[in-house]
Amino acid sequence: MTSEIILTIFLVLLNGFFVAAEFAIVKVRVTQLSDTNSKASPKLLSASKQVVGNLDNYLAATQLGVTLASLGLGWVGEDVMTEIILRAIHLFHFNLSMEIIHKISVPIAFILITTLHIVFGELAPKSIAIRKAVNTTLVIAMPLKAFFFIFRPFIWLLNKMANGVLRLLGINPAQEQESHTEEEIKLIISESGESGVMEDSEIELIQNVFDFDVRRVREILVHRKEISAIDIKQPFTKIIDYVTQEGYSRYPVYEDDLNNVIGILYVKDMLQSLHLNKSEDVRKMLRPAFYIPDSMKIKDLLKTFQKDHNQMAIVTDEYGDIAGIVTMEDILEELVGDIQDEHDAELPIVEKQADGTFSVLAHQSIDDINEFLPLALPTDDHYSTLSGLITYHHGSVPVEGERLELEGYEMIILKMYRSSVERVLLKLLEPLEEKEKEEN
User: Fold this and answer.
1) pTM
2) C-beta separation of 323 from 316 below 8 A
3) pLDDT in tens, 373-392
4) Which of 19, 56, 263, 430 is most buried, with most CB under 10 Å away?
């Protein structure tokens, strides 16, 4: 009887071993088993990586182990538990007939052995494996490899049969662990933020990296009306005054019109020329202008900047006109956020007024503007800025002082720059609380 009890306990623990092995090798990743992240021996690490890298075969081994242990437990365990219950009844001298004793002992034995099986053979090992996937994998790797070696022919046959069924269903059997998709990584990051594992700044940085891959130059450029540019025909003294006042290190230089940029003036080149040659000929100080289309992806522009050791590009639109400029700083800000230096004195994108209205720079992207508004403005393929949204819905060129009702706001055009809206005053058409009640 003692040996049968020991066998029952062993089968429960054996079932737990294979359940833990199954969940651990599915959850753990090969990168988590690196030598630098573990104090385990190289041999154990190597065995663990082999198991995780050969997922299909070792999952089949765990399934076979669970099945054998469960069958053995059902064969031995119930009889053992029944015998224990019968002995307990006789020990306490319950005045029951043998027929009743047998009728109640069997279901009680079934409930007890099932409870042991579920708790110690399934749930507890599964929870341990999920929470301690790396440690569990290191523990089970060598025994699981030995089990796989012994039952390899049978496992191979079962695996082939299972893969055949998968192919009939149009599913390709996985031979190794698949990588996470971008959406899966984003979900993991989001869940990590909600649980407090990652800080908001870390989450924002990683999300910016994903967005960086698809964003285009037109979304980050400095609009042409905001460019600090130099007219080559200006007197040299005025150019010096302008450069001193603006405080930048590089300036596009144009002739007659901003669409005719003839080069880039580096302040250090100008100072060097003045110091060495006493020359005031700005044309001789210019470096070639680097032109790019506004449809270019910023990740490609970054590579080009790095390759050519460039810091500024002139951006052209689909008609070949100058749309604006983009610098290395603009690209980096897409990853790490705004970079303010001692010369920056930028106007806020959105200024909330005392009466609850919002004064908005209309040439900024809608995504950036929405960060400061109580009711988000919609984005569309036809426009990316508030100015574009207004022009798209207006159908013609707005005028200063004109009022429009768009996307839940009354919009008042405060300032125009030629045919482009520069500043707009936004006022909610109805309080946000009332709008939410109507929607509900």
Assistant:
1) 0.51
2) yes
3) 999 999 887 788 898 899 88
4) 19
